[in-house]
Design goal:
Blueprint lengths: L2 E2 L9 H6 L6 E4 L2 E4 L6 H18 L5 E4 L3 E3 L9 E2 L3 E4 L5 E2 L2 E3 L4 E5 L5 H5 L1 H9 L3 E6 L4 E8 L2 E7 L4 E3 L7 E3 H4 L6
Parallel strand pairs: 5-9, 10-11
Antiparallel strand pairs: 1-3, 2-3, 4-7, 5-6, 7-10, 8-9, 11-12, 12-13, 14-15
Length: 190
């Protein structure tokens, strides 16, 4: 389960977040800090690597760019600037949303790979944050069940689709991009 920091009941902003010097990795959601797990599992990183390779290869020479975590995504930088997340993979097509520190506003596409310590956060709080911020497509990839829950925004809400380990999954916001999950899950441990 994600660990909410015991710093205080105070609410924090991105400026506060940048000043933290404790060596840990944090996310900030509605001003509340959440400690991130020290190191993801082998399976998490294997899935992350293969997803990134497929996306990066497809996007080569195209205007959209994919990037791996850790990268700060400031979902509400223009209002409260109190929500900073570090999705496993983001794709951004509007280069004005990219600065030296990360992403300003909603990426076009976000992938979160479940870990036991982050699953609840990814499926609930971050799901709602991504929806509210306007992330056009959000995938939750589960290495344990070798499944994918894909959410595509339509009329301000997410339409869900479920996929299994042998499926090839279209990325709706990247016309022509299809991720082969048989390759994504190929190197997992037993």
């Amino acid at each position: 389960m994600p660990v909410q920091a015991q710093r205080s009941e105070e609410r924090y902003t991105y400026a506060d977040y940048c000043a933290w010097d404790d060596g840990g990795r944090w996310e900030l959601i509605d001003g509340a800090p959440y400690a991130m797990s020290p190191a993801p599992s082998w399976d998490h990183q294997s899935v992350l690597g293969e997803l990134y390779v497929q996306l990066h290869t497809f996007l080569r020479g195209k205007p959209c760019k994919a990037i791996l975590s850790p990268v700060d995504v400031r979902l509400n930088y223009d209002t409260g600037d109190d929500t900073v997340v570090q999705p496993d993979i983001v794709v951004v097509c509007d280069h004005s949303k990219i600065d030296k520190r990360g992403v300003l506003g909603a990426p076009d596409f976000v992938i979160e790979i479940l870990s036991p310590s982050t699953a609840l956060l990814d499926k609930t709080i971050k799901f709602n944050k991504y929806l509210k911020a306007g992330v056009r497509e959000y995938w939750i990839v589960d290495p344990d069940s070798k499944s994918v829950s894909a959410y595509v925004m339509e009329d301000g809400k997410y339409i869900a689709s479920a996929y299994a380990s042998t499926d090839s999954v279209p990325v709706h916001v990247l016309d022509g991009c299809i991720i082969a999950f048989s390759e994504v899950f190929e190197e997992l441990t037993d």
